[in-house]
């Protein structure tokens, strides 16, 4: 450390062939780290020098080591991965959650046919642990935090492993309301646009032909919440997306479909409901009523856990501040 309160840290990497993907095209990953953490990074050969405020330089070192170790273990990294690891380096320890060691790849992961999903924030780490442990999980928070995507990954992983027999994905088709009858096509064609995000997540986890074959066989079912009435869902992994758009009656109906040897995940943003004015959200009602029940966990995400483009996190923060 020099006399002006700045630190200069050096890193030597022993596998030079990893430095290309580590630095990114035209050093864009290094530029991201410099801009987000306020440091200067220079590279010569296999040595990297980080100059900046002591805390920022240490965080930048951890981010670079974390990215390098992920590459060394065979994981790909892209701008989103760099952004998420920078975010993890900036996160304080949360109550009940051990702060992740950014320099080390997470040992928690979900494997599917097409992807291996690793946590991109401290809360995602807790979420993945809960998905593997608890019978019912409420995932609460803004869009872009990976609530539904990670849940679908866990569901596909368990379907592949044979620990569940089927996968049931549901959403309330609130936006359609009474207008479903005016849309062209049969009922499936009317509601499929509202279920499209669930299809997109599935196609990310499984080859297209497997998704279509499993849907045709009934192993995977994607349907509006109204289709759940009167059923008991055993030996299944059940996901309800956009749960903030259910009424308390719909939520009670859905939760009581829960059967033996099943797991249920309820995803939604309590602050973003599309219900008519004056209609209470079933998600908010359920959170109040069910908090503290054993084997039922509540995982709360915030704008800091957004894993899309960093601008999305700032937009969420801006809206949360305005609505506060």
Q: Which key phrases capture this entry?
A:
single chain, 324 residues, alpha/beta, 6-stranded parallel β-sheet, 3-stranded antiparallel β-sheet, 11 helices
How is the main sheet built?
6 strands, parallel
Strand order of the largest sheet: 8-7-9-10-6-11
| Structural classification | alpha/beta
Percent in strands: 15-25%
Unreliable stretches: 92-99, 176-180
Please tally the helical runs, counting DSSP H or I stretches of 4 or more residues. Answer: 11
Nearest-angstrom radius of gyration? 22 Å
Note down, in words, how this protein is organized.
The chain is of the alpha/beta class and 324 residues long. It is 41% helix and 16% strand. Helix 9 links the parallel strand 9 and strand 10. The longest helix is centred in the first third of the chain and has 19 residues. It is elongated and about 65 Å long.
Brief digest:
This protein is of the alpha/beta class. It has 11 helices and 11 strands. Helix 2 packs parallel to helix 4, helix 5 packs parallel to helix 6 (147-161) and helix 6 (147-161) packs across helix 7.
Q: How do the strands and helices of this protein lay out in sequence?
A:
Layout: E1 7-12, H1 19-23, H2 28-37, E2 40-44, E3 47-52, H3 54-72, H4 79-90, E4 110-111, E5 116-117, H5 122-133, E6 136-140, H6 147-161, E7 166-171, H7 187-205, H8 208-217, E8 220-224, E9 236-240, H9 248-255, E10 263-268, H10 282-290, E11 296-300, H11 310-323
Parallel strand pairs: 6-10, 6-11, 7-8, 7-9, 9-10
Antiparallel strand pairs: 1-3, 2-3, 4-5
């Amino acid at each position: 450390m020099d006399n002006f309160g700045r630190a200069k840290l050096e890193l030597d990497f022993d596998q030079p062939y990893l430095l290309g993907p580590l630095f990114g095209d035209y050093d864009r990953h290094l530029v991201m780290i410099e801009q987000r953490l306020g440091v200067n990074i220079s590279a010569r050969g296999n040595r990297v020098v980080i100059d900046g405020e002591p805390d920022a330089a240490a965080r930048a070192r951890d981010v670079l080591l974390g990215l390098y170790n992920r590459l060394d273990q065979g994981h790909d990294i892209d701008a989103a991965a760099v952004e998420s690891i920078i975010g993890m380096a900036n996160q304080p320890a949360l109550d009940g959650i051990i702060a992740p060691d950014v320099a080390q790849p997470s040992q928690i992961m979900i494997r599917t046919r097409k992807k291996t999903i690793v946590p991109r924030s401290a809360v995602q780490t807790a979420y993945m642990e809960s998905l593997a442990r608890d019978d019912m999980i409420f995932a609460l928070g803004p869009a872009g935090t990976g609530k539904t995507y990670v849940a679908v990954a866990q569901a596909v992983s368990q379907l592949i492993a044979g620990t569940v027999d089927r996968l049931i994905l549901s959403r309330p088709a609130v936006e359609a309301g009474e207008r479903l009858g005016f849309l062209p096509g049969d009922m499936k064609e009317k509601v499929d646009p509202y279920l499209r995000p669930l299809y997109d997540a599935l196609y990310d986890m499984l080859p297209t032909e497997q998704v279509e074959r499993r849907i045709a066989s009934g192993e995977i079912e994607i349907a509006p919440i109204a289709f759940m009435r009167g059923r008991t869902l055993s030996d299944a992994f059940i996901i309800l997306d956009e749960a903030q758009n259910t009424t308390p009656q719909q939520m009670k109906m859905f939760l009581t479909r829960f059967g033996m040897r099943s797991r249920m995940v309820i995803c939604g943003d309590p602050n973003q409901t599309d219900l008519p004015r004056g209609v209470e959200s079933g998600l908010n009602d359920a959170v109040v009523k069910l908090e503290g029940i054993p084997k039922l966990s509540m995982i709360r995400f915030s704008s800091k856990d957004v894993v899309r483009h960093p601008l999305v996190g700032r937009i969420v923060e801006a809206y949360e501040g305005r609505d506060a």
